[in-house]
Design goal:
Blueprint: H1 2-7, H2 9-12, H3 18-37, H4 47-75, H5 87-102, E1 118-121, E2 124-127, H6 137-226
Antiparallel strand pairs: 1-2
């Protein structure tokens, strides 16, 4: 895969733009999928899956390289990390260059001078040269320090966001507790109303029973008087 990308740096760096460039990129992804699937000792994937594999691998190695450089800078090249780059990963990093690994939008992912770089301008495709990578440790150290600072700011932002979310959840929990108490009060009121209704029903039945007894007594009295 890396060898194919080295042969087609425009595809690797996402510089095949415009209708003609996108068509060329699709052709190259299909060509790479055919090459990789024909190896016989690996998985079979469609072109879009191989594209995802390339993006994930490149991103993971970039992050690994940045961690290694940050560790060396923080420890003064002291204790090494247990996960160093293997030869294939070092080859990928050289292809991308430290500037590209750092992920600065103003810097170009460069590598060994490509055979040709396709840049789409409307319907015209022109060839341009890409400069050789320059490993300037002093400049990169500054970029690296800036990256560490950004990561620290990102952690603070995440912590702040988590704190706000915890407060919001706490308010929601308290609101639910208040609603539950209100519901309990309403249920008690309903129970009292039901009991009152039961008492009224019992009184009504008792009154009806008394009326029935009185009517029966009057009937008996009338019969007795008639005799």
């Amino acid at each position: 895969m890396l060898q194919f990308m080295e042969q087609h740096p425009g595809l690797a760096r996402g510089r095949l733009l415009g209708p003609a460039g996108r068509a060329r990129a699709n052709e190259l992804w299909e060509e790479m999928a055919t090459v990789l699937n024909s190896c016989g000792n690996g998985p079979m994937r469609p072109a879009h899956k191989w594209q995802k594999v390339w993006q994930d691998w490149k991103c993971n190695i970039k992050k690994k390289y940045i961690r290694i450089k940050a560790h060396r800078s923080a420890t003064g090249s002291g204790s090494p990390l247990t996960s160093e780059l293997n030869p294939l990963e070092e080859r990928l990093i050289f292809f991308l260059t430290p500037e590209g690994v750092q992920g600065d939008a103003n810097l170009v992912e460069a590598g060994p001078p490509p055979r040709e770089e396709e840049i789409d301008r409307g319907d015209e495709v022109e060839v341009t040269e890409v400069p050789d990578p320059v490993d300037d440790e002093a400049d990169y150290g500054g970029v690296e320090a800036e990256a560490v600072t950004r990561r620290g700011q990102g952690r603070k932002l995440v912590a702040s966001f988590v704190g706000v979310e915890e407060k919001r959840l706490d308010l929601e929990r308290r609101k639910l507790e208040v609603d539950e108490r209100k519901l309990q009060v309403e249920e008690r009121k309903l129970e009292l109303e039901e009991r009152k209704l039961e008492v009224k029903v019992k009184k009504q039945k008792s009154f009806e029973r008394i009326v029935q007894l009185l009517e029966s007594g009057l009937e008996l009295l009338e019969e007795h008087l008639q005799k």
